[in-house]
Amino acid sequence: MVQSTIKPGVHKVGFISPPAWFDISPTEFLRIAPKNTIVMQTVMRLPDFNYQVDGVEQFINAVPELRACFNSLTESGADVVTQFGYPFSLAHGWEKANKVQKNIQGTSRTSFVMMGVEIVHAMKHLNCKSIAIASTYYSGKMSSILHEYLLEAGFKILHSENWQSQGIAEDKGSNLFIGDGELDPTAWKSPVDAIANAVRNVSKNASAADCILVSGGGMRLLDIAETLEKEVGKPVIGGDLAIYWGILRRLGIKRSVRGHGKLLANLV
Description:
There is one protein chain. By secondary structure, the chain is an alpha/beta fold. The protein contains ten helices and eight strands. Strand 1 (11-17), helix 1 and strand 2 form a beta-alpha-beta unit. The protein is globular and about 45 Å long.
């Protein structure tokens, strides 16, 4: 009989990645995770999914596939399963997104973390009541969906800007996402400078905000959050930070992760 090479006490984390998106979250998470952590990834199988489609129905209709992915990773032995991408929560609204997350987890001992749900818990953990939003590649339409979601969750939105309003990228008016070429979030081509400048611009117009939310899971903040926070004087929170925070807490990790911003430094 072949013996398992997985040692007792190992943390096993499963990642559900959106379709047609090369998601680096699993390998990025390992940089800050305890050494006894291993990861597994599955990509949602939605062959007709199209990021250029106008409307959120495809995100709503993705629930059965999310459940199938969660079940697959759970059966593989994952302790925690996380889902990447805001819209799979935003499309439902705050209250219903919570129900979706709870229903998918069901009675399983494996915890389920949805990015759009966890971002709310993360901001509330840092006592953020009024927020400013750097919507980056979200179009005006997608930004409105995000705003409604956050208002339902109880936040006061003081200011919001996307790349179109900042003159960084063109909003063509019909799609949920903007940006192409070097600003194409689906190809992981969004330069750090574009993300940082989006945060700086929003901060200048919302000095009273408790924190700055960077929307769009494709905006990677792990390596720049702490520097930006020192610059703008308040927490800067994004989807990547929120799911990593949520995973670590569900694994029972209490030791602060330093050097990556206030959220990861506050696991308890």
